[in-house]
Amino acid sequence: MTTINLGKTHPAAYKSLLALDGEAAAACTAAGLDPLLVELVKLRVSQLNGCAFCLRMHTRDALAQGESTDRLAVLAAWWESQYFTAAERAALALAEQVTRLDVPERPQPDRDALTDEQAGAVGWLAVVMNAWNRVAITSHYPVH
To answer: How many CB atoms within 10 Å of residue 28?
Structure first.
């Protein structure tokens, strides 16, 4: 199969995904989620999907917002580190659950660390990030 730029071949579907992205971002803001937690979720979903384009973009975004290189370095093994708050751990676990159904056994995050509104916002954020990863990977966005 040749490279297909999904945004160019079906711009209306791409615009709809942009709108969904905006709704998920608004849900995160309305739920009071920390912007760094949002970037961590985007990065973890992109790690699981192997999306270099989104990894580069969201790593830069996280660093610009003050995220530490130490936390970014261990994000792929977040459950083994003590760097992440209960809310971040809950959000990362939920994002993994949405991204892949066969999540390896992990310590269960504190369910009370996120409100229902926050957990719903993280769920939608992970859905949107999974969609963006698939668009970028399928379209072979260049990573320089």
So the answer is: 24
Question: How many residues are listed for the chain in this entry?
Answer: 144
The predicted model scores a pTM of 0.77
d(CA 4, CA 40): 28
Q: Which residues, at least 6 apart from 1, have a Cβ–Cβ distance to it below 8 Å?
A: none
Residue 95 C-alpha from the chain's centroid: 7
Q: What are the per-10-residue average pLDDT scores of the chain (144 residues)? A: 74 89 94 96 94 95 97 97 95 87 62 79 80 81 82
How many angstroms separate the Cα of 143 from the Cα of each of 4, 55, 100? 16, 10, 24
